[in-house]
Amino acid sequence: MKEKNVFGLLEKELRRVVGSRFKSPTPIQKGVIPAILDGKDVLTISETGSGKTEAVMLPIFDLWLRDKPAPISILYITPLRSLNRDLFKRILWWSKKLEFDVSVRHGDTTQYERKMQAENPPDMMIVTPETLQAATTGKIMKEHFRNVRYIIIDEVHELVSNKRGIQLSLGLERLKELIKSGGNEEPRIMGISATVGSPNEVVNFLTSKKRQRKIEIIDTSKSVKRDVNVESPTVISGDPALAKRLFIGPETAARVRRIIDLIREKKSILTFTNTREFAEILSSRIRTVDSKLPIETHHSSLSKDVRIGAEKDFKDGKTKSLICTSSLELGIDIGLIDFMIQYQSPRQVAKFLQRLGRAGHSLEKISSGVIISSDPDDCFESTIIAKHSIDGRIEETHIYKKSLDVLAHQIIGLTIDEYGISLDRAYEIVTRAYPYETLTKEEFFDVCRVLQRLRMIWMEGEGEIVLKRKRAAIPYYYTNLSTIPNIKNYQIFDVISNRPVGSLDAEFITLNGTPGTSFIVKGQGWRILEIREHKNRVYVEPIRGLQAAIPAWEGELIPVPWDIAQDVSKLRKDIADAISAGKKKSEVLRKITRNYPVNRDVANKMYIIIKKQTEWGFVPDNESMLIEHHTAEGETWVIFHTPFGSLVNETLGRVLSTLLITKYSAVGLKTDPYRIIIRLPSGLVPMWKEIIDAFKQLKPDEIPTILSLTLPNTELFRWRFLHIAKRFGIIRPDADYGKGYLKKIVESYQGTAPYREAMNEIEQEKLNIPKAVEVMKMIREKKIRIKVQNGLSPLGEGGIGYNYEVVATGKPETEIFDVFKERLLETRIGLVCTQCGKWAIIHQISDLPKDFMCPICGAKAIGVVPERRILEGQTIIKKQREGKELTRLEKERFERLNDSASLVMGSGKNAVIVLAGRGVGTKTAGRILARFPYEDEVLHEILKEERKYARNRRFWKV
């Protein structure tokens, strides 16, 4: 078909408007426009900037102009509010030209706007999955939604693999029932995406089981031109000095320097990081180097106004780069983008292609980008992902199946749609949705039983059971529209500076929050001293060594798939084989740079690590597994080199640690996409053989059983159960809870639908049990061979330490001391004359003279009290002098005042400094002052005492 004929198929009025907007149709428009006009539903897959939105919308506008159906006839669903706003501006242009009404609805839509939408419904409405759930139940709005003829789901890949997608799939089935009840035909459905790994699975998601009309896949994504390169900058002169300035290593400084150079070179750049934390850290490091470089940070934790401001400044050219996360992956219009930087491996091809597609953003331009990789693992992973991206090899799409908490919410929705709906009819509607095709009647009935137990529905009848909602159902439904957990945060307080330094979410605290645990946040290592649940605060001290620290962003990282990890292993093997065959280094590097989109620095880094590993003795690959054991400083590390990806390794690691914990009280477990690492504390050094034997003897069929028995006893299970309980309505969304309370609820619902859904959620999101079983079968069948070797190999060493990248190596003790000293000397303290009681003053310690006395009576017996208790102290002194009886508490405080006054008489200002320390009483102060006469010595001792107090305070009765 010639280009002119595609637009020529459109109505004359629409052709005229299209001609003012487009010169000629794009490849995706050539395929999609005639298909929709021919009555087909389509899944449109094409790169960002290809005109795929108009490819779908133009023929729908055409059909609307021909029929002028009653509103609301067009429903456009996007996964983000920001996309709603962006799309609304875009569609508004067409609506003015074609004279149809368009409106947007989301959580921020005012009551007035909602009223206007009900009274004057638009022809087209733009919604999120959540607002669709609310809007279709309104008494007036549901009448308008009966008229929907066309449903467009944008960025469909973003929804299909999570609970928001499941909720949408059921919501669409309910909407279809509403439309059919109005005497209208089933609506046509269109999906839009830039990257889909399994198009047929997405088609299944969009299509009901009993739907007659099939969806045609039209995919032009593989025709896009991409310029991708992987870099890992080497250290040059100036980088060591920069490293000292930023408290990072020279190699990391080289990478930060390269990013700054690229931002300066290009006109507009999106710089992607994998987590919000890294976005903040990288932004702060760049600003430290060049405070005038116009950059902004953009991620989901920032307020809406901040994000919109950053987007506007970037579009207007005021900002050269946005340091961002997945918040800018999707097609929000922020203007033309020259280039894309991905800082460290993007971990999945689909993620990378979404991000890369933002650069260029038009068919005339090539999507250009670079991955700045770090350590050898990161270099290998980035190389494989870049190669897969160029070849168009995207991970398979995983569709979340049979979510029982979402089902509970939708059953209530069905009872709102139709009061007194039969159980059989509700079950039939639910199982039409692809994620629930295999849901059994008994599983459905179990969820109904839980809802009846919670007094949200009752089941009436014996033969044909009817579901009827109760009063509690309505508020439950509307307060649980979102499937995204509402997670509270804990504020982190540094005991040295007494200032907040960041926050941790409750999941991190639940899984890792015990005193003594080290973690990383805001680019610095910290050790937990105390957690105060009632204040939602975590008290910490800074640390130097980061080896045992847990990155606070770890939970945000998306898993590395099986295929990527396997191909990393194959590339390692190729390099190892070339080295073993005696190939020259230059020849090996030339082959790598010829076959993969990497520069010589990356190739060299990969070559060096494999050369070292070869010299060490053995290079593991996808067919030969290495297990190494290493003992140092009383600890034994057993490292399994398992290139099976994040989820398989997490599954096998949990099973192995479970088997070991029955013998040893303390077993450390760490997994990454390429390793399972077991750590034994001192005293268990000879036991590494038993660990290896336990792994070898693990029967594949035992894996599901072991996990089903042990996972419910983990903090991870209880954490997941908490959110599922909230979505079921067992716990209020805003309820506070303790671990003991939560444990009792878990026990009371054991074996029920919420309990099973907690297991289901962990198994689908955190584990890959079927693949783990397959791997163990391959090991038992000798398809994967095992080599055991003593010592710590170069690849093993890389696994023991986390990859901290732009994280500070740790504050020097001198810097910690300076911060503490500044805080203490700036403390305001109360001084009261214990002799006359007439004089009292609040003083900043730094302004105190070395010696001082009461200006009224001349006494040096000056008592020290906290600033807030100065009037109380003065009252107690006067009361004592007047011979009035003191209460027990007043007597205690009088004695402390007298004791502190004795110390001030002997040591002057130094006594005040010591007594200002948190948790430092008069006895401890006396001991310090007796041993250390000089101010700095005194300050060092106070710092020690404060740390001790922070560590032990939780054991005190307060």
What does this structure look like?
With 958 residues, the chain is of the alpha/beta class. The protein has 5 domains: 3-223, 3-Layer(aba) Sandwich (Rossmann fold), CATH 3.40.50; 226-391, Rossmann fold (3-Layer(aba) Sandwich); 489-556, no CATH class; 622-800, no CATH class; 813-955, no CATH class. The longest helix is centred in the C-terminal third of the chain and has 20 residues, at 888-907. The chain starts with a helix and ends in a 6-residue tail after the last helix.
Structural features:
seven-stranded parallel sheet; alpha/beta; single chain; Rossmann fold; 958 residues; 39 helices; 47% helix; 30 strands
